[in-house]
């Protein structure tokens, strides 16, 4: 590797690492255990993990087939469909929250239909899951679609020539091809859901124990107790790092 590349590489690493380390200079070590074990922090962490896992599972159930359609389908307008799928990656999350609110809120077209049967989604835990899924699912779709395109369709074509039907080919050929990329895609999806803020606060609000995830708790606490907010931020950083460090090597091993 050219030595000159070390300079921008080190600067890029410093840009990512130093701000995080700067949090350690702000928190009082003596207060840190009490702040991390406060009911507000633990409730927010528990809600973040549970909703993050649910939204990751929902992203897999919905986004997996979508990735397969994008990678294998030859329907017209596929480029436009892909652009809409990737839209949450470039939209400000608060715009996604407003879109969900005006679609599923009491005055929205789908919200009015749901309201007639007694279902109200905004400002509920279900709204948190939907907001997280909206912003995180594209990460899974991109990962799986890329893996399918890299692998190509030759194995599935061979299976078809040997008499395997579409469903058998999917189970015995396509799914094994996706497994190496599935791990890393799920990790990124969960990590993104864990840190979701803008769409959640817009569509679900910030109700402790119901919709106040850890990012929302950090924002809410920062208005009155900066030390507590910094402690919660460190907690979120540690959880995210654990998810990536523990799960990422397994995903890499699967590829090898």
What does this protein look like?
Helix content is 78%, strand content 0%. The protein has 256 residues and is mostly helical. The chain has one domain: MetI-like (MetI-like fold). α9 packs antiparallel against α12. The longest helix is centred in the first third of the chain and has 34 residues. It starts with 5 loop residues before the first helix and ends with a helix. Its main location: membrane. This is Molybdenum transport system permease. Keywords: Cell membrane, Membrane, Molybdenum, Transmembrane, Transmembrane helix, Transport.
List the helices and strands and how they pair.
Blueprint: H1 6-24, H2 32-36, H3 39-72, H4 78-90, H5 93-104, H6 109-116, H7 125-151, H8 154-161, H9 166-194, H10 198-203, H11 214-222, H12 226-255
Organism: Saccharopolyspora spinosa
Domain ABC transmembrane type-1: 45-247
Family: Belongs to the binding-protein-dependent transport system permease family. CysTW subfamily.
What Rg do the Cα atoms give?
A: 21 Å
Tell me roughly what share of residues is in helical segments: over 70%
Instruction: Tell me the name of the CATH homologous superfamily.
Output: MetI-like
Number of strands: 0
User: Could you say which structural class the secondary elements and strand pairing correspond to?
Assistant: mainly alpha
Total domain count: 1
- CATH-defined topology: MetI-like fold
**Oligomeric status:** single chain
The CATH class is: Mainly Alpha
Query: What is the overall silhouette?
Result: globular
Low-confidence stretches: 251-256
Order of SSEs: HHHHHHHHHHHH
Question: What number is the mean pLDDT?
Answer: 86
Instruction: Count up the helices.
Output: 12
Strand percentage, roughly? under 5%
Q: Kindly, what is the distance between the CA atoms of the first and last residues, rounded to a whole number of angstroms?
A: 23 Å
Q: Can you summarize the main beta sheet?
A: none
What is the second-level CATH architecture? Answer: Orthogonal Bundle
